[in-house]
Design goal:
The chain is mostly helical. Helix content is 82%, strand content 0%. The longest helix is centred in the first third of the chain and has 34 residues.
């Protein structure tokens, strides 16, 4: 048996045993772990899947809390929490309806497209729109293969939406990077002067 599998089984056994005594503390602890140790999200996703087999109500509470955390992060603009919450939900795609994730992706896509729309949006907020697209794309390595297996047409629709966004967004250079362009021009002039 592989070490990670043994670790997951041991972790599951401890959490399952502790649930009878400290459900609220375990709920808080798992949510804190997913936020503070996002590189371990695959472990937490697996753990949530195993817990769902025995205690659907507890897993429902975890997912509701994660959804609330995501909504709070969207309202407050907490980019890190948005990104981590979305990854966590993506890793739980075997527990929640995969089409629910696609709804989140499509809401972010719609928001991004609206932001860069010249008539309805505020193109000066393009960085926010780009961030929403980056969040969607960064979820795919974490659970995209499962989503493609489960709902290929819906994921294809999301990818088409991302391509459409990329075609309408403005490609504006960051003013802060102009310094480097000037350095490149000066180096080119110096080289030509030497030759």
């Amino acid at each position: 048996m592989h070490f990670s599998s043994l670790f997951q089984d041991a972790c599951f056994g401890v959490v399952r045993w502790e649930l009878d005594h400290s459900e609220d503390e375990i709920l808080t602890f798992l949510l804190q772990c997913s936020e503070q140790l996002p590189h371990k999200i695959p472990l937490y996703g697996t753990l949530i899947g195993l817990l769902n087999l025995e205690n659907e109500e507890f897993v429902k509470k975890i997912l509701e809390s994660t959804h609330k955390s995501l909504q709070d992060a969207l309202d407050s603009g907490d980019c890190n929490k948005i990104r981590v919450s979305m990854r966590f939900l993506t890793m739980c795609s075997k527990v929640i309806q995969p089409s629910s994730l696609v709804v989140i992706f499509e809401i972010l896509l719609s928001s991004a497209a609206t932001i860069v729309d010249d008539e309805k949006g505020n193109p000066s907020w393009q960085a926010r729109a780009d961030f929403y697209i980056t969040c969607i794309l960064s979820c795919l390595p974490w659970g995209g293969s499962e989503l493609v297996e489960q709902i290929p047409e819906e994921i294809e629709r999301v990818m088409v939406g991302i391509e459409a966004y990329l075609s309408i967004k403005r490609n504006v250079s960051d003013v802060g990077l102009f310094v480097f362009e000037d350095i490149n021009k000066m180096n080119k002039l110096n080289v030509e002067h030497v030759l």
